[in-house]
Every structure is written in C-alpha cells, then in structure tokens.
Amino acid sequence: MASRAVDIASKVALVLLSPVIFFLLCEVVIRVLAPQIHGWEGEDPHGEDPVLERIIRPHASAAYIAPDDRRVEIHTNSRGFRGVREYGHKDGSTFRIVGLGDSFTNGSGVNDDETHLMVWEHTINRALAGAGKRVETVNLGVSTYGTIKERIFLERSGLTLQPDLITVGFLPNDLWDNIGWIQRHRAGTAPGAAAVKDDISPLSPLIGLVYQIKARSHFAVWLGKKIMSAPGVYRFAYRNRPDKFDYTSPANRDQVGEAYATVHQELGRIAELADSLGARAAVISIPLRYQMVAGLDDRGGDIRYLDGLLAQSCAQWGMEFVSLLDTLRSATGQAECYFPMDGHLNLRGQQVVGEYLSGWLRSREWFHQ
Questions:
Q1: Fold classified for 46-368
Q2: What residue spans define the domains of the chain?
Q3: What is the pLDDT of residues 285-304, one digit of tens each?
Q4: Phi and psi for 345 in degrees, rounded to 5?
C-alpha cells in the first residue's frame, strides 16, 4: 500500500514538474541560440529627476537589442536630446520643429536617425532641395512621459530652441501617465526613474507580473513574439486579456473624460507657450497597435473618440491636429508597422509616420510663408 502511494506521488510530482523542466530547458536553449534580453550595452542612458521622474542623461551612449533582434544604438547631445547634434542659434533659412512625446517619439526600437522625426526631416529636406529653406527636428521624446511632463520639459529645455513648430505626440496611455504623475506628486511619493511605469489599464493586477516575466525570461519573450505575430492572434488576445481598457466603449466615457480634462488643460498651456514664441503648435495623434487590428469600431465602440476630443481641444487652443489612425491602419494592412510584443512603432512604422508628416507640413500654407 505504501509503495502504491509512493508511486502515485511520484507520478503526480512528475506531472507537476514536467512543465517546469520543459520551460527551464527551453529557457536555456533560447538564451544560448536566440537570446532575447541583453539589457543595456553601456550605462543606462536614463537618469532621475525630482519633477520629471525620468530624464535622459546628456552625452549618453548605449545600445540594446530591439524586438526585431536588431542592435539599436542611442546617443544624446549635451542637453539630453536624442542624437548627437547640438542646437545653437537658428538662421533665417531653418524651420525648426521641436517634438514632444514619449517612447514612440523618442524612437524605442530604432536608431537615432530612424525615428519618425528624423525621417520627417530627411524626407522634407529632399523635397525642398534648392528652395533655400530647410527643416530641422529636435527630439524631446522621453519614455513614460505624458502631457504634463512634456509641457514641463518644453518649459525647461525646449523654449530656448527657437522652435517654429512644437509637436505633441499623443497616445491613449497618456491619460494614465498624467494621472499617475499627479497622484504621486500630491502624495509626495514620486518614485525613482526605474519605478515609473503607468500602464494603459491602471486597474490591472496582472500587468506587473507580465512585465516581470518579460524582463526576466528569454523564452517567454521569444514565444510571445512568435505567437503575437500570427494572423488573428493579437485580435483574440486583446479582446480577452483581463487588463484590457477599451477607450472606445461608451461604458468608459466618464473615466476617459475625467482623465482627458488634464490633457485638454495641458494642451492649452503648450499652445500659450508656443504663441509666446510666435511658433505654431500641433498635436500628432499616434494610435496604439490594438487600434490597428482589434476592429473595435465594429463592436459598438468609437475608435475615433479620442481623436474627436483632441480635434476639439486643438480648435479651441488654435493648434493644428494630425491623426495618424487612417494612415497607419492602411500601412499596417500591407505590412506590420508595430513590434508584435513590444507594441512600439517598428522601423517601417517610423518611416510611414515621418513621410506622412513631411507631406502634411508641405501642404500647410503657413509653412511656405
């Protein structure tokens, strides 16, 4: 009888341990043959700030492996702006664009000269060749920034750049970035740079675990990229994920509206700062990957709801409004513009955005004046 109990216990233990052993073996194989997480080669370029919480250090130089397995380098100038170029006095032939935003603007996953701001600059300057005018872009994007931090960073570092155009890269998760910053600073509990991570769904108890797994397991990241790249999987995963927050659902309008009130106020302050310099301001609405493939607008929601709010704010504050929703949906229908797991714009996505913005700027009468 005892031997039978031992036999059953051994089989149960084997059943329970087999998945763990399989996972560990897969982890070892992927770490050796296809490593996914390398961390920073060189010092982490991010530093801490008591107000902005996270900044990019001046004269930083580091590299990492992007979600498409390319080695990506990041450099900053003497003021902590992405790229090595310094920005001095602007001559009369230069039209300078200062780009505010988060990691999508900074260019997570691409090199310094592959961000949509640099693509914008290169594309429009080729079109302007011989016209006696050139465009220069300044990348003030910083990962985790929402509208509040972007306005503060503009006041601190952007106004002295003599911008002709100030752009605000907006994403839906900026709503929660703003709320998180307000709550931490009201409570006097602003954390260090590494701890700041406001997610698109502030109510999710699982999102922290997901980030921990992604940060530690090469196999989980490798498997996730393979699965999420399969047709239809992302749509299914998004619709059934427990931490989902649907910006388009009428049921969430009150919560979205309360959060958006801060965005509206901050856009007004940015517009005032631009006006004080004689510059123009524009909001660039960048959709998240789920807005490309989840088909939310065929489920009773309104995929353009936030764009509608932004357009109203821009009309009130005298700002330009550019929505990239249709442009990126069309481009994504031909080839992927986002990293499957990471969710940021990939190299093609950055190119699509930069080329579109080049055409948009050239279509503005005030640009040619």
A1: Rossmann fold (3.40.50)
A2: 1-33, 46-368
A3: 999 887 776 555 555 567 88
A4: -65, 130
